[in-house]
Structures
1.
Amino acid sequence: MILKETERLLQCARHARTHKTAMAIEDFPASFIFRTDYLEFGESLDLLRKTVSGMLTLLLIGMLILAFNVLQVRADGSWVWVRNTVTGSYGEAVVGTGTALYIARGSSFYRYLPVDNSFVELASPPKPDGYAFKTGTALAWDFGDYIYALFGAATGDSRRWFYRYSISNNSWEALANTPVDHGEGDAITWVARPYNCIYATIGGEQRPTFLMRYYPLNNSWGPEFPVPGIGMGDGASLVWAGRDCLYALRGEYYEEEPLYDFWCINLTSSTLTSLADIPATPHSGGSGGVGDGGSLLYIGFWMTDQTDYIYALSGNQAYPDGIPDDRTYKYTISTNTWECLADLPFGVGYYVGCRLGFADGHIYAWQGAPSTWEGGGDDLATYEFPTPPTVEVPLFELLGKEVREVDGGMDVTLTFRNYGFDATSGTVWIPWEKVWYSTELRGSPPSGNITENLLQFDVNGDGDTADVFTVHYIDNKTVEVDGVTAHALFIPEQRIRYDEKGIYDVLEKNSFRLGLKNHTLDKVSYFPEYGYGYAGFGIDSFFRYHPSPNIEFVIEQVGESINSTSTAEIVGVKLNGASSPYEFNFISPWLDGGQWYVDNAYVYPLGFLNSNAVFTVQVSIRGEPGSYLLNTILNWAPESLHRYRYFVFDAVETPFAITGTLQRTITFEDKDYPIDIVTNSTISESPLLNVMAKEICFNATGYGVLTFFWNITIPQNLLTDNPWTITIDGTSVPYTSTTNGSHTFLFFKYTYNEPYFKTRRISIIGTQVIPEFPSIMIPPLFMLTASIVTVLLKKKRKTKPQLP
């Protein structure tokens, strides 16, 4: 199976299942026979009603024009001057909302819009004691309509003012005062679910620094926790990066003593852990360390390739104040390391306050310095991320395909050519999960659930299966699961279609943890115009490194429960005529739309594939009678972070059926009646006998545009008729009937036209059931049954409870 996600647009027209790749219609050539469940939810509804016999019109061409291969940001970006704004002042700070920058400065408040390069003054901030913003001013955006502001305090002041600004109304609102006095060490950040509150460090050099929480729902401040290590001061900054941790730049505390402290403050325990020092070394005769203008910024909520990084300014050095500082930095969370980025086109310093914000896909830095400084103190610059390094990728095409039915199975031969660059040898990660699950996203805000009772699986490892985990949609790359941020492996911008021959995805290695278990978010999509979306999860996942390049074969079939297993297997693979053992095999059940499925996956190394290399893979599959789908995936990786996953048109999916005899039994009055069924469809359960209807019925599942058949042997001492009535989903079908005197042999067939697994109800109706139980006795039995039911209903009415 390739994609395991749900898109239920027309449930009666398709059983709304999608594979992990979430291929959209524009990903396929017009001649390719594809499944309608590849369609994204917002694509044309008419396509869902069209036949899948090929030649469908391509729609929505161009959605992938913006697709590009995004790799991690390097340290060789550059800063570009944007425009003049306003000079700095005591009491200043910057915050970005993803679309705009907001700047607090003295007695004024401003907005910069990158979309039109406009800079305007907004509603004036309140002046509760005759002044608005003072040293220690700090801003935080709540991912919604409000920007929260600590108003700061001058040396010797006792100020505790706390306000919020409404973006939509351009107005200010007074909130509950902070429990302690403001100071140079003020810093605030918004922390989303499950906390949904403001976290702040409040204090400074002349007073203790406290960590505390503000709860917007009841306009109240929570308990105060003294920040260990004396306190915080000029250049203090605070960010949340979607984890159970706040990252804090301490700033300076003693005016002439350089400090480089960078901390992680645990949200659960409020304990502090020292991380790698920021490399703010001395320069230009200064003392080094963090000073005025120290800033932190996390942009991973907007850019999924940035979830491992925090950007920073060190501000001017601890001493003296008058030396501008143009240095910028990037901190890597996973490795606890810093690196220096390109210098700003101006120096920052002198005034306390954060200078960094994010808007319109860019990091912005505001100078916010005195007008006497070089640049005039009013410059605004943006950081240009480095151009992603060009990756010389292999490109695969299908040269030939042969599918041959054999006794008890199927042989498939695929011939590929790498017409791109060399597929160099190495390793590539692939995620494997104990169970896969897709949840719908609905409502406002969009959300869904991972329900243990439904899965019958302990998701977080706490020993029970009664938990429900709420999934909150953030964007088409990110969700929150019970407050834990999860980033998807699949990134829409990193899907590349090439030359009408195939598609490759550049997948990013991401995972998240619930309790004791790791999980992966395969893909998330939400369509606001329809109020619908889905998120697909690998539950209890692990990453394993495999030889690169490799070919992955997955046999997919329907199942009945989480305990279902595969009934088909690969018994042999030849690569260019030589036998090739599998490197890894893994069976995984998955649930989607209430239906269980089973994947049986195999990985085979391919070795180094130079440009223009042609290779042939012969796959031999054997198994029980039934309908199956063979998925073929090519995997390659140029480095450890990304996995390149290839889907070659006409090879990616191969529906097939295995013919054989199923021996089933109908039991009636302690006697077993053997029912043999020669078929190429999947029949999981034994047929059922309905005595009153003189009917034998069972479910049969098939996939794709294939013709399925049934040759059923029925004992004549169980059910007879002449003629018979055979229906499939209520529609009569022609049949051929023969007999040997003791058994009836019924042969009929039906063509499935669905590009997904479809289960149909087959009914065989006779005129006489079990000669030992003559039909003349059926009416009295029916009357007796009706009488018993009537008596029971009367008794039930007598015991009906009385209303109070």
2.
Amino acid sequence: MDWALAYVLLIAAWASAKNGFALVERPPSISGCKLSEFQCDNGRCIALNKFCDGTDDCGDTSDEPMGCTNCNRTFFGEVGTKNPIRIAEPFQRNLPFVCTMHFVAAGAEFGDIIELTFLNFQVGTLESDRNQSASCYNGHLALTEPTASSPIVRTSQTRGFTQFLSAATGRQPVTAPLSSFYDSSELDQPEFGRFCGDLINTGGPVIFFSERNNVTLQVVIPNRASLHSYSFNLYLTYRFHPSKPSRTRYGDSKDPIDLGVRAPESFCDRIFENCDRKKCKIRSPNFPGFYLRNFTCRFTIRQLTSPQGTQAQIVLSQRNEYKISIYTGRTAPGGTSSQRALTSDCLGDVVRIYDGGNSQASVLSRFCGSGSLTEVVSSGPEIRVELYSVGAQQLYASKLELDVEVRFVKTDDFRVEPGGKCTFEIDGSRAERRGLIYTPNHTIPPNTTCSFHFRGRGVHDRVWIYFLSYFVEDKQRWSSAEKCDVASLEIVDLSAQELFQDANSSIDHSTRRFCEKSSPRICARAVEYPQFIPLRPCRLPDDSYLSTGSDLVIRQKFFKSSDIPLRRSSFMARYEFVDTEQAGVDMGPHHGPCHRHFQSSTSKFGHFASPKNVFMYGRGGSENITCSYYFSGMASEKLRIYLTNLNLPTTQCTHFYDEATQRYTCRMVASRANAAKISVVQVTDHWGETYTPMGCFCNTTSQLRKPILIESVGNNVTLSFTVQGMSALEDFNNYGFEATYEFRPATSCEGGTARRNGSEGELTFVAKDVNTQDTPLRCRWYIESSPKKYLYLKFQGHDGSRAASCNPGTNKFVVYADGISDPVAVVCTDGDSNLANGDAKSLTTDAFHAAKDPPPPEPQFDLFSLNWYNESERQPRGLPRRNVDRVLVEAIAVKAGAFKVRWLEVTKPFLRTSSGLTLRNVNCLYECPELSACISPELWCDGTVHCPSGHDERPEHCHQFPIMYLAIACGALLATLVITSAGTLVYCRREKDRKTRDIPNDVQLEPPNS
């Protein structure tokens, strides 16, 4: 009967208590006390928190009735006033203890939001099962907040009711029906979790800020028999704040903070759009206070617009280390948090950041703990952040704030594709063969490998790499061992790898790997220059890498780590495809790297150009370059070269077309500025040891409108490409040439008649059908003297060495000295039309020298060979020593005509010794006075005029009795007779002596052996 009565009384008390919390607008103050005050029996007004606080504040003990409690009450307060409350359970009880408190901000002077500060907390225990799932035992605290502010407030009509019946007993988790026994929240509000255990010390109080005007605090403790040695303690303060937004929470009025738009039918999901135009921040509920338990907040940030040619990226970060505080689930001794930095090893709450708008996207970051967050950057215009709050946890100042920014990058930037693919193909066949590679400019998900595969356009391509920066965070700075636990970088030379596999070597040099304590070769100085090309080149092998083949792979691997890196792993490198291909055949290591040989037996025509290898130019570290291209044809061939492009900038040289030689010629310009800087292309035709210029080009940077044709006379030609004094910024884009070549049948020069009689000679050549050719007809001949003699040449024509000496369309002789490339003379000759028309009589020497009816006088030009002017008979410096004198004569026919040249072998009448003395040449017997040269005796008075003045054929020399010749002949005959007689007498005398010599008749015997 007593149990039944007790049960009825308890039910009635529960009903009255529930009805006592009537919902009213704002009850009228009958007593005159404020809403935030309690009226004593004596009429005094005290703060609501002083009721049943253990102190007689009224003076009549009406605020401390017997068995009172401050539980199950509604608290109001004035703005700015901090009110302490200590919740204590009754000393003697056997039933469960449930304490519910409602904190209501009534508006105006009573504020609009609530602040709860927990100074001491010890309610139940938090225990984890084998799955690391935490639950509250022996009591808990729950905070609830409605999803919207309400104009109604809760007020207490009764006081003194301290206990009511609970169905939960024993050491079991408190069930949801019991914990929500006094929950008056709306139906769409989430079922919040619980706090239990001890207060975790974070260096300050644990504060809760409501987002609306109504907060319910509920403490549930099971019956006392199940408490064992666990104690209960809860001490907090409450304070109300006005509706005016604070700068900390909502920002400045001039620069307001955008906290996103709340998603429909959700507790804390928010959507952010176009944060490039506003200041967006992601905040946990109730920030800057701690957030509640047992929910998941989803924050979606998207950028809807971006400038043309760019793509948006969302950047999340937090530099303030006090604005991220997520409990890791681990507590150090003393009740403090064991994690002082962000980590991905989370047993409780966790923040996940997805690279996309849903949770199926790649996870960019997963963290908890306290500290600053380095930039987390999305690969695209959308990102998602999830804050997951577990159902049970110790009381901790859990909060989160992230700054949101929008960054616009080029659409062709490197980025990880959806699905985690991070492979980039860099094709060398594209127009741009150089550029930058770098770690994608966004956060890379863990366990991702990004590969950069370089593929040359041919087998001759090489990949040149130099790194501008490299960073991997070292988490074990105290150790010298490399762990490679954050990220690594590998350089894989695929061509070298194939060689390694074929050779079965035990050492693989094809792969280079770098981690946190090692780094690739860095050419950091290049960062300071435009296009990352430094004034001091990044040379091989100190500052850069060069592949052995056309394929190279660079891999960057990102490993999963429990620690959130303070700075993301990254690298930047400049790459360039180097074209090592060169036409022709390499001439071997004894020649330069770009000396090439072309033979007509291999190819009759083809294309060749200056090298495209950057290492041969200034940007690759070479200040000077000289490349020679040798063309060798058969004896019956000549060579044509078509220059299609010339890029030869220089201020020290100019080229022009020489009408005299019908060739392009260079003229050097004396200048102090850039004296050592020159670029030139020279083409020479060599016959034996004589090199004749075919063309010289410099100081041209324009595209040729029409290819320049150069044609040789012989079958051996050399083209030289020379650049000196290049800067570190210049390469094959600044200097070079392009050309084609063709071996063709040589011009027939057999129509000429050459006569040589002892010490003289004559050459007559007739040029026909010249108008059918697109280049002048060229023929050449060597004229060689006898040992220790010189050449005197007489041409039919006049001197054309001076400028404009020859009329346009005039045939020419060009004379070269052996071993010297520049011509020593140019002779203009109009030729003989009769010869061109085939008058054979004109070709005969008799007709040429006929005294009867002599032809009209023709202009003549004569000259000595170059060695004639060497008085000491020493060979000029740089020329080979030889005992014979050689001259190369080249005929240039631009129209039909005849070419004539005569030559004599001459000697000097006087010789100058090395000491400077002048001596008479005893071998010089017949001298041409006007030439100061001696001719051979057989040419003297031979019926042909050899001296220009005819001195050798004058009558006084040729028609007198030859006494001298007769005397010489007689003397020679007499000497012969004397020698013959003397020889006969000697022979006869010896024969007589031999016959009269006595023959010995005794022979000496050898003595016998003794």
3.
Amino acid sequence: MNTLLHDLRHALHSLRAQPGLCLTAVLTLMLGIGALTAIFTVYDAVLLKPLPFAQVDRIVRITRVQPPVSGPISPAALREWRERSGSAFDAFGAFVEQTATLTGTGGAERVVGYRVTPGFWDVFSQPIALGRGISAEDEGRGERVVVLSDGLWRNHFGADPNVIGHDIVINGESWRVIGVAAPAFRYPANAGVWLPTLLAADSEDRGNNSLAVVARLAPAVTLAQAREVMRGITDWQAATFPEQHAKLSARIERLGTWLSSNLRGTLSMLLGAGLLVLLIACANLASLMLTRSQTRSQELAVRSALGAGRAQLIRTVLAEALLLAIAGAVAAVVFARVLLAGLLRLAPELLPPWHVPALDFRALLAMLAVAMSTLLLFGLLPAWWASRTDPALALRGGARGQTQTRGQTRARRVLVMVEIALAVCLLSGAGQLIDTLRQLNQVDNGLRDPEHVLSARFDVALPAMMPGMDDEVWTRRVNAVLAPQIDELLARLATLPGVESAAISDVLPASGEGGWNGGLQIEGHPLADDALVDFHFVSPDYFRTFGIALKAGRMLDANDGKGTLVPGVGVVNQAFVDRYLGGGDALGAQVHAYDDSAKTIVGVVGNVRQLGPDEPERPEIYFPIRNAPIGNLALAIRSDGDVSALQPALRRLMRESFPDIPLYAIAPMDEVTGTPVQMRRVSMSLNSAFATTALILASIGLYGIIAWMAAQRRREIGIRQSFGATRAHIHRLMLRSGLGMILPGVTAGLLGALALSRLLVSHAGALDAPGPRVLLLVAFGFGAIALAACLVPTARALRVSPSEALRDD
């Protein structure tokens, strides 16, 4: 113990003699380890940790694939999947999102609700903490029963176990609480209540593809075998029901894989960027330790000559590496915590509902081990060399030491070139993503002045569809509830001060939501069987509010949709006219979309990029909002002033006039239209942060070696100045040495950037490879910073007079 304490004290004293080098080493460890640990923590939570469900490896997500669309399945098709799958699956379950407004608990509040089939609970092995799940008997009898999430139970009902059996009010109707889900069960994400689907067991509905499907594989069944079983079922359905199930197939994925598919590419690229930063940090550490080894080689050789053994010399280096590693680890922990918090604030969509990312000390220890190995590898070399040096040569500073110096110099130059290449590669990748966002921001999404439009979402409580209820009966009940509330809401919105127009729609335009789509027929214009059209439900002032231009005919008016259950008229966009009518006259055309009835086209409007600026315009048809059989709606108000000033008035209007309708997601439309590119923006921001870190580390490395070379050549510089060399000549001499590292490093980095660009296009949302402008900007930008890193230490060396330089040596 005394020996260890002595070694640590000696190491601390030795390190204090070179504070600049120690600070640089600690900062390098902090940046390299902290950055990678933060991103790995998120990567681990989202992609590596298993979902907290029983035997989760057997739970799969099954998606209907029917080109050109894919998604949920119809009730009749689901029943056949379940009945014809034999013993391949232990359970089938399905769910569909349900608008849910909870009242009677201190005001109206929106909760995320889902309607689920009884088999849903069997798929997840009955994750019920209190009471029971929804049963087939509940479904068959049309019971209004509900299962609460653990969070809702605790926050709204005080974790009262006596809530079981009591009624709560959802969407204006009473539902009996029969169970509370287990605390860890959160599927679908953020669900607050689960209600029965209330589907008839013998439903023959094949047109309503609304049910998302999950299933549990039987114990001995592999994913490949399950896919083969489903292929047989869907082939039979396509042959038996060609009108509804033509080209039908099913895609089966493990649930964890399906849930993380949208983030896998982005997080993998960010993890790769973090690894590159760690490599640069390790190269920087290696360079720093080689510098230190050069300054200490004489000291260690002298200590060896005075009797210090190899073990003693190695213990000294180990103690120094340990102190640097501890200081770097502490700094890395602090930096990783700050970076992780900022990352989750910047991109809350990266936060999984099952595992909250917390600092992963396993990753921290692994990264620290890598850095410690670098410290030891390049720190032990001088101790080893010193222990093998002839004491006489050591005391005279013999030629052997000069040979080692040349070898170490070459090693440092190579390490700096590696740092430069990796930094340029990361900078080019960040530049590629920034250029992608620049291009997307220049795309016209079809809306005029979205910053002058305030949007919000609200839910209108609709009556439940009961087993055996005719679609027409339910639609009449929906219209009786929905139409008067929409009329009154629009009238009140128009009274707000500063409001030019107001609109209500099923989705917000250019927000990435897309809406519904379905088959299309046009009388007198034969179309392919797979012709599709997106349809939206909007109020008369929708186009005026969002600034969507009228191309021909008229817009919808207040009389459209009155007294009818289904739309009688519609307005189409220009993409519809171009694709299905050959660019001809659309006015008066009779189309069949959404249902079998004919609708008359009364107007043509401009295109809107509903799914984002990188997606093409799609054929669309707009129907009157009165005919919308949905309760999840959006409102928008256009003002000539600051729309944020309208928020308090809008909230007050809704609270006073519609106390049972909660308002949420209030935001200016320019923020909403940025949603489709949000993940690109996050990827760009984080890659830029990693690239900046790499630039700093590479600049430090380059500065360090030029400063060391200038110090080693002080005598030479003094002699050259004595013989008349100018300051410009000395600068050129040192710049030549710097350019010998900068040019190869930048060239290698640009070549690496071209290879990296393919990954960015396929995994991180880049539109195309970086153009010459981006590469030149990166090359010249980095080159300027690198040259500055060369000039600063040279200028410092030139401040010393020739006589002083010669005298010091």
